[in-house]
Design brief:
The protein is mainly alpha-helical. It has helices at 2-25, 35-38, 42-52, 59-73. The longest helix is centred in the N-terminal third of the chain and has 24 residues, at 2-25.
């Protein structure tokens, strides 16, 4: 647990440094540059992969899932 907290803290610090760097560089470049374009970090791709691998539910499946959640909440 402590390792995960330290890792997340390190990620947060690197994300912050990347954002500050992008803000500082922005006035000196012609095109708009995002922090991810300026300094890609290893976990950027992992987040998009997780998002892309999420199952796409049909309208009927979403409705069923919602109804189950409503029943659980009662």
């Amino acid at each position: 647990m402590a390792k995960r907290i330290r890792f997340e803290r390190g990620q947060e610090l690197q994300e912050r440094a990347r954002t500050v760097a992008a803000i500082c560089i922005q006035p000196h470049v012609r095109k708009r540059i995002t922090p991810r374009q300026l300094l890609p970090l290893p976990w950027d791709n992992k987040k998009s992969e997780i998002r892309n691998n999420a199952p796409q539910l049909t309208a009927e499946e979403r409705k069923e899932r919602f109804e189950k959640l409503v029943q659980k909440a009662k």
